[in-house]
Design a protein that fits this description.
Elements: E1 4-10, H1 15-28, E2 34-37, E3 42-46, H2 51-60, E4 64-68
Antiparallel strand pairs: 1-3, 1-4, 2-3
Helix pairs in contact: 1-2
Length: about 70
């Protein structure tokens, strides 16, 4: 299992948002591990995805990318 990397995202407000982000990431990286915390504004993605692909997916889904989340 890959390590999950955390990234900050603005603009998510519901589970529909979480599904949109998840679908966008998996479109670019099929089978990627994805966990979305809508309330916290964080997405956790398997490191196989790579930051640039996650960034692209988040922006394409209509949300604002804020970069790597600090634990």
């Amino acid at each position: 299992m890959s390590e999950l990397k955390s990234y900050r995202i603005d603009g998510m407000s519901c589970e529909g948002c979480a599904r949109s982000v998840t679908a966008a990431i998996r479109k670019l990286v099929p089978g990627a591990a994805v966990e979305v915390d809508v309330d916290g504004g964080v997405v956790r993605v398997g490191d196989e995805a790579g930051e640039e692909l996650v960034h692209q997916a988040v922006e394409r889904a209509g949300f604002t990318w804020r970069g790597e989340a600090v634990a």
